[in-house]
Amino acid sequence: MIKLINFSRNESIEFDNKNYTLSEKDFGTVNITLATSQGYKQIGQSVNTRTFGNRTVSLVGYVLANDEAIMNTKKNALRRVVSLTTPFRVDNGNYFMELVATSSISFAKSYTENNKFLCKFMIEAVAPYPFFQKNTGMEKEITPSAQTVIINNDGDVPIGVKINFKWYDKSLQPKNPYIINQTTGERIQATHTFGMWWYENFFIDTTYGNKHAKVINTSLGNVVIDNALPLLSDDSVLFYLQPGKNTITIGAQTNGNGLGAVIDYSPAYSEV
């Protein structure tokens, strides 16, 4: 069953064919802008970078009721979910896409399509992140005894990761942890010695719109360094997992055998 969810307002509606029904849905396509170059006498062009644009989405359906007061209540509930000031989510139970309304909801004008029994509506929005994401994220644990693992991104686009370096052996103090995506050669290197705050984790997030790093004291549950990005080396790349298999290695400059990590990721898809 498809739902619209507004987490900021803690409200949602379901297209259950009793209160609301969805008759048309158009998720458009992903727009790609290519940056190209061409050398002297080169046949054709070289693609240097790809930039993904947002995605235009439209949803058409009906509000269903049996009297005017209930119809107005249900219309207002739909307006609150499809907010003009906060993002909302379309969710089919397995995948979701985050949306931002580009106009207020358009309700039909004619009596045959707007009365106390039914009212046709159209929602127009864009998806700033133009891909569908799985509702259930994936997790991979890397232990001190096995510091290289294979992570399979079964989506069709690169995705960010959430990396949680954990201090496993309190008799050791891992210094300057790192993580490498051997598939791409990209590396994140931090300047940090575990044990400075006792029982701390070093957390790095490379996901879209959320890039940050912090140090958390797990025994007290508080953040001891809220912005740890300056602790990353200048050549660090907040890498993405590529589609398919990615070989990931963690370690530390010293005492790396006392270090582990948990990596969370959510595959994304251009179509579902």
Number of domains: 2
CATH fold title of the largest domain:
Jelly Rolls
Specify Rg, calculated over alpha carbons.
24 Å
- β-strand number: 22
> Beta-strand percentage?
over 45%
CATH class of the largest domain: Mainly Beta
**Class by alpha and beta content:** mainly beta
Number of helices: 1
Fraction of helical residues: under 10%
Q: Average pLDDT, to the nearest integer? A: 94
CATH architecture of the largest domain, by name, is Sandwich
Strand and helix order: EEEEEEHEEEEEEEEEEEEEEEE
How would you describe this protein?
This protein is mainly β and 272 residues long. It folds into two domains: 3-130, Elongation Factor Tu (Ef-tu), domain 3 (Beta Barrel); 136-269, Jelly Rolls. 5% of the residues lie in helices and 47% in strands. The relative contact order is 0.17. The mean pLDDT is 94.
Brief overview:
By secondary structure, this protein is mostly beta strands. It is built from one helix and 22 strands.
